[in-house]
Amino acid sequence: MHLHLRDAIINLAPLEIENPFCEGKSELKYFEGSIYGLLTIASATQTFKEVIKNGKNGFLCNSEKEWISTLTELIEAPKLIQKIRENAFLDTILNYTPIALAEAIQTSYKSIIKAYRYKLGIHTNQLRISWIVPMPVAGSGGHNDIFIAANEMKKRGHDTCIYFVHGNIDKHPTEIKHFIKDQFGYTPLFRIVSGADQIKSSDALIATHFTTAYIVDNNRFSTYLPSYFIQDYEPFFNPVGSEYFEAEMTYQLNLFAISLGSWLADKLSSQFGHRKRAVDFWVNKQIYFPTKKRQFQNAENKNLIFFARPAMPRRAFNIGIKALELLHVICPEINITLFGSDEPIENYINFPFRNLKILSRKELADLYNEADIGLIFSTTNPSLLIYEAMACGLPVIDLDVNDSKFRHNDYPVFNVDPKIQDIAYGIKHLFDKPELRKQLSENSIEFTKVLPNINNALSAVSTFIEEEINGRIFK
Fold first, then answer.
1. How far are the Cα atoms of 39, 136, 231, 268 from residue 249, in angstroms, in the given order?
2. Which of 241, 326, 340, 380 is the most exposed place for a label (fewest CB within 10 A)?
3. Angle formed by the axes of helices 361-370 and 384-391, nearest 10°
């Protein structure tokens, strides 16, 4: 049959008009002939009238007389035949190929989804977004970011829910809500569910930790956009072993990745092929700002603060404590203050210190303004603590590891090698050089001035997801 079509010029598709059976026939004869370059003359059934524009991409006939006149006219008009054959071929390519039909089906499904959402009273651009989050712990900066991002989604009109997993998932959602409000200072606008046994369908399902990435992957068929909000390079949380590789493999799960900061986005792009989608770092300038004029000349009181979290290996607690032991030997006049954890740490330490434990944001800002130098380590991604301290004008010492200068975009910290002696003598050097501390302080304030506030920065998580989903479904 195909050989006959290839050798023909005119394709006849006669049907009995107004016959129920014939009126139910498709336009198959038209596009099957047109793809071979044939000109179709068809009976003017309703289906053929919808696809053939008479005299443009074919001919329609209502009577025997019209069939005869059309064929007679075409026999004497070879140029007209060629033009209409070309038009019919182009029409078939645009409307009847697998790609064109897939687009038409997608359009149909979009209209069905819109109609269904309208019936449920859901705004056209409103999304159902769910997060999978480990149970919150007091003072967790990562949880704080997630809660703000989820609140921003709710403010933008999205149906937002957080499923809390691991830890004490027997807690009632009301209890978790009160904990978030008490420990993080935000009233959750999002819904809260303990456990992820019955994850409902969603437009986007967002992992927030490598253990939750596997939950999202297992539920990818219940969500349109399986996603991953990545705040640290989490393989570095662990020694090179099982958990290291489990964390690293989550970056190969084909999840829609959103990274915190450009260094992490670059790393995920170069190593795992993720498209770069970076949320900017931020500072709450209403809390973190210089409250007084700093004195940089050598003073009788020298105050050093150290962010001390034994439970977080990436904060390099042990090496910091050993460096401070050496510092106390060479500079016993320096007052050392620890902060950041409620864990008992006295047994680790062999030098005089005070421990302020977990502080409120206001208390942190006061501490940054009172201290002379901050020792704050961040090995897996830049730390918001450092930006907040810098915004108060505090000179900060960090470890020069894992592309530190590139991770931090060469921001004005005092980088030292992760050696006990280098850290201790680096602190001494900075205390001995008031002009260097003054320069670091001024540069830090200028650097953080251009950073966005937290709500504007974390609203980018919503924006990335909205653009990805809306661009495919709702437009």
1. 57, 24, 16, 12
2. 241
3. 60
Q: Give the three-state DSSP class for 60.
A: strand
What is the reported pTM?
Answer: 0.70
Angle separating helix axes 141-155 and 173-184, nearest 10 degrees = 110
How far is residue 317's CA from residue 315's CA, in Å, rounded to a whole number?
A: 6
- DSSP symbol at 326: H
CB atoms within 10 A of CB 294: 17
Alpha-carbon separation of residue 27 from 34, 52, 53 (angstroms): 11, 9, 13
- 339-367 burial, b at 16+ Cβ within 10 Å, e below that, comes to bbbeeebeeebeeebebeeeeeeeebbeb
Report the distance separating Cα 93 and Cα 299, nearest Å.
82
Calpha distance 327→310 (Å, rounded):
19
**Count of CB atoms within 10 A of residue 77's CB?**
12
The full length of the chain comes to 475
d(CA 96, CA 376): 63
Mean pLDDT of the chain: 89
Largest Cα–Cα separation, the chain: 113
For residues 282 and 451, is the Cβ–Cβ distance under 8 A?
Answer: yes
**Based on the number of CB atoms within 10 Å of its own CB, is 428 exposed (0-12), middle (13-18) or buried (19 or more)?**
middle
Query: Residues 320, 321, 322, CA angle at the centre, nearest 5°?
Result: 90
- pLDDT means per 10 residues, the chain with 475 residues, are 67 92 92 90 94 94 93 88 93 89 82 72 78 89 91 92 88 92 89 91 95 96 95 88 93 95 91 92 92 78 92 86 95 94 82 91 94 91 88 93 65 88 95 93 92 86 90 56
- 3-state SS class at 265: helix
E-assigned strand segments in 261-395: 278-279, 302-307, 334-339, 354-355, 373-375
> Which runs of E-coded beta strand occur in 14-166?
39-43, 59-61, 128-134, 159-165
Residue 356: closest CA among 285, 303, 423: 303
- Across the strands, what pairs with 339? 307
